[in-house]
Specification:
The protein is mainly alpha-helical. Helix content is about 20%, strand content about 5%.
């Protein structure tokens, strides 16, 4: 089964290859910690399920337990909460710039995954 990260605007998915991204389930048995994770994820109205995951990119090195023996598995400390998030304002700015580069006479709207503030229509020029 393919895992996707639940963090807002994160595009990490589990897939074969050299990159080692680990995915962690929400701590659903602990309501307080689950709420901390939901707040960190940053998605309005998000309700995690047993299939909801957060990728290892959103945790600090000290959030992981030290495992002896060189295991490739990562285990989170019970106090870990996702806290690393890229500068999403850069992502949004780039998407808006892509919208501005669209020829308004050929396309009625922006094809970016982030909605534009204005739709490019010939009457709005």
């Amino acid at each position: 089964m393919v895992c996707s990260c639940s963090v807002h605007l994160c595009t990490n998915r589990s897939k074969p290859g050299p990159r080692k991204i680990h995915f962690f389930s929400f701590p659903l048995k602990n309501a307080e910690r689950t709420q901390q994770w939901v707040n960190a994820v940053g998605r309005k109205g998000f309700i995690p399920t047993k299939y909801s995951k957060v990728c290892s990119d959103h945790f600090h090195q000290n959030d992981f337990e030290k495992i002896c023996g060189g295991s490739y598995l990562l285990k989170l400390k019970v106090t870990a909460v996702p806290s690393i998030f890229p500068n999403y304002s850069d992502i949004i700015s780039k998407a808006k710039m892509q919208c501005l580069e669209v020829d308004p006479f050929k396309v009625a709207g922006c094809s970016s995954y982030i909605p534009c503030a204005e739709i490019n229509e010939p009457g709005n020029l």
